[in-house]
Give the backbone structure.
Amino acid sequence: MVIEQNSSLAVLEAEIAEPSPLKPSEQLAEIFDLARLKFEINEIIEDYKLHHRSLEMTVLKQPVILDKETITFQLNGDIQEGIFQKIKPDILQILRRKLNNYSIHLEAIIKEEENEGKRKLYTSTDKLNYLLDKSPALMDLKRRFGLETDF
């Protein structure tokens, strides 16, 4: 009976002396909020500014959505998405280290611009008509100086 107690005590002491190996995600999983995330992203942007990496800075300055441990960047188009995919491993590693959370995931979505039913102004005539709607006095200037939109 005494031998059984000693052997189980030895097993317990061995478990205490040698902690079970944990994955990095289980070791460090601090909770963070959007304000802390934005602070850390701004520090990365400042570092990129020092290294003249303006394209990467533009991507990181886009709006961010935080849903638990998933960080989603709202990008403007395919070009920004391509840049994001190139820098994603580095940014993920930096954020995981700075936020002490190895469960973080990065994603990107392309948000569509809302035109609110407005059409795009491509030609000079379209632009002039748009400005005339905003300021009718412009028509008087056009007549007075004999301005033409097409040249």
User: Anything to note?
Assistant: The beta strands are 64-67, 70-75, 105-110. Residues 23-110 form one domain. The helical segments are 2-17, 24-27, 34-50, 54-60, 78-99, 124-134, 137-145.
